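Colleagues,

For the teaching module next term, I've prepared a clean inverse folding example: a structure given as tokens, and then the sequence designed for it. I'd like students to try predicting residues themselves before seeing the answer, so please don't circulate the second half yet.
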């Protein structure tokens, strides 16, 4: 038995990690319970308005959410473009545990939520999100901004005392995205990937850049080939920059954890923070 390890994205990773570590302190809990519980904290309370039902909407005024879970044995569940569900990360877990599928989207994900007894709320923006959306509508200028305000997924990876690893991600994606847009976060191999006995990787940032390169899978395969988690994050970020022009216009942050408990963190640009255990850290970056 070794002490559990939890690593997650951005400042909101800190409350998520605290919750995950609290869960992992119970002898019967699992890495999956821990990452789900950690992600749920941010789904309920995300001051950045980038996770959960309190998020900024898409350009048509709808909050659409993406989430995923994965465990080291290759099990995975994801939901994308789902509306009205308070805890999409838990719905993703139910997709993994109760269906023969990996990914449910939109109305089908909502229907599954109802079948599981989960309440689906009608579309509604918080007063702040509504105000900001109406201000945005005046110009309708869609321009994702580096590091700030219009995206910031909580992605979280945990290795429990029994040597089991799990990851979760949950996000509203990019603010003012096109209706129906899905990013990297609920896509296995892109925003999230775990493979025992190698390790796991999770991403945040401009999802299109990560989708084009399957960033998390790339980092895990680099670890399989012998890279440390830090080297794996740097290699994956280098590939993202190589395949996606104008890196000054986007941010991607990558975190990795291997089964030895070693961690890595790297980003395209300065400003990516992450939580390791109960400590907040700035990640090194390419630029
Ligand atoms: N990766 C997310 C997306 O593109 C957003 C983020 O992590 O900041 O949907």
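(Answer key — instructors only)
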């Amino acid at each position: 038995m070794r002490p559990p390890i939890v690593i997650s994205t951005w400042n909101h990773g800190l409350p998520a990690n605290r919750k995950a570590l609290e869960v992992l302190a119970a002898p019967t809990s699992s890495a999956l319970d821990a990452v789900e519980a950690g992600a749920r904290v941010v789904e309920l309370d995300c001051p950045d308005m980038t996770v959960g039902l309190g998020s900024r909407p898409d350009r048509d005024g709808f909050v659409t959410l993406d989430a995923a879970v994965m465990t080291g044995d290759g099990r995975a569940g994801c939901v994308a473009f789902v509306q009205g569900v308070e805890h999409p990360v838990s719905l993703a877990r139910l997709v993994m545990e109760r269906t023969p599928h990996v990914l449910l989207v939109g109305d089908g994900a909502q229907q599954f939520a109802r079948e599981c007894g989960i309440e689906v709320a009608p579309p509604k923006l918080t007063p702040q999100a509504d105000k900001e959306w109406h201000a945005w509508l005046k110009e309708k200028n869609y321009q994702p901004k580096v590091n700030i305000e219009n995206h910031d997924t909580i992605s979280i990876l945990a290795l429990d005392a029994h040597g089991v690893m799990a990851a979760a991600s949950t996000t509203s994606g990019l603010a003012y995205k096109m209706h129906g847009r899905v990013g990297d976060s609920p896509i296995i191999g892109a925003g999230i990937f775990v493979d025992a006995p190698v390790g796991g990787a999770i991403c945040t940032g401009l999802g299109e850049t990560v989708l084009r390169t399957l960033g998390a899978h790339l980092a895990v395969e680099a670890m399989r080939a012998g890279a440390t988690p830090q080297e794996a994050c740097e290699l994956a970020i280098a590939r993202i920059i190589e395949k996606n022009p104008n890196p000054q216009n986007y941010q991607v942050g990558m975190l990795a954890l291997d089964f030895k408990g070693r961690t890595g963190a790297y980003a395209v640009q300065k400003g990516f923070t992450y939580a390791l255990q109960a400590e907040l850290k700035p990640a090194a970056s390419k630029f």
